[in-house]
Amino acid sequence: MLDKIKALHNEIKHLTAQTADEAEHLRIKYLSKKGIIPELFNDFKTVPNEQKREVGQLINVLKNEAHELIMDLKEQFANTGVKGTGTDLTLPGTLMKLGSRHPLSLVRNEIVDIFARLGFNIAEGPEIEDDLHVFTALNFPEEHPARDMQDTFFIEKDPDVLLRTHTSSVQVRVMENTQPPIRSIFPGRVFRNEAISARAHCIFHQVEGLYIDENVSFADLRQTLLYFAKEMFGEKTEIRLRPSYFPFTEPSAEMDISCTLCGGKGCNVCKYTGWVEILGCGMVDPHVLEYSNIDSEKYTGFAFGMGIERIAMLKYQIKDIRLFFENDVRFLDQFKANI
Ligand code: PHE
């Protein structure tokens, strides 16, 4: 009896089946009521009492193993849809849940596309920066109060390691390594030590633009920005440039667009002025060019910088900047159509 069980054990280990029918035959042969293994239980009666316990256990192990092996063989054929095994291949598949792009990515891509059409390429720089690239090379004198325009997160002092407060640092990195003509935009994340509210966040995104060549004028700046505004907010959009101050541009300006919501008539988005501010800009200060070894007698250029959140808030009428960072799917789902 023990030998017989052992032999069967070996036998079932090597069973194979090429078709569902063959697998079913094996099941009938070994496991059905009159199959080889249940028959063993009949012989069991003849086993001497003192061996019954051991033999009984072995037969049970054999039966379980055979069951598992043969069921595995059968399973191979179960999902192939062959001979009505229960799978209907004409049924629609399970739908995969589609994600959506983050609104900031959508707006960033749109800005990049618009400037790409004007021949601007993209460059990026590090988020963790030094004082030289964020301030000194951009004409912020040491201890100058203009440094307080942007509250800085310092990581280390002496030498300074800090989180960049604007993407203007990438201007310096590009000018250090490239001679004009330069026509680039620099999208990226920036950090300011500011209290978080509906209108301000300590992390946000900017797109910087830099154009340096011979004979670049303020008129080129204005025309470039007008093109951008019309592409981004619609053909009817108008712009106005207000004098402003940045240490690295001279003259400097802030640009407003006619309010996208009321079209200039006055509403609470534009605080009844008809205009909303969207970016800072100006002609690159000759000091800044010289600092990066660009001949300021030969070359002139313009630069501009805008907040992506601000543009996205205007474009999609989002009232609270914090929504961009919470990643609530009920908010993000609304941008599905805008891939
Ligand atoms: N870096 C300025 C800011 O963050 C924006 C700016 C960029 C202004 C380029 C002029 C030229 O406010």
Summarize this structure as a short list of keywords or feature phrases.
339 residues; alpha+beta; BirA Bifunctional Protein, domain 2; 2 domains; seven-stranded mixed beta sheet; three-stranded antiparallel beta sheet; 12 helices; elongated; binds phenylalanine
What does this structure look like?
- With 339 residues, this protein is α+β, with helices and mostly antiparallel strands.
- It has two domains: 79 residues, no CATH class; 236 residues, Bira Bifunctional Protein, Domain 2 (BirA Bifunctional Protein, domain 2, 2-Layer Sandwich).
- It contains twelve helices and ten strands.
- The strands form two sheets. Strands 1-5-6-10-9-8-7 form a seven-stranded mixed beta sheet, with helices on both faces.
- A hairpin with a 4-residue loop joins strand 3 and strand 4.
- The radius of gyration is 37 Å and the shape is elongated.
- The site of phenylalanine (PHE) has 11 residues, from strand 9 and strand 10.
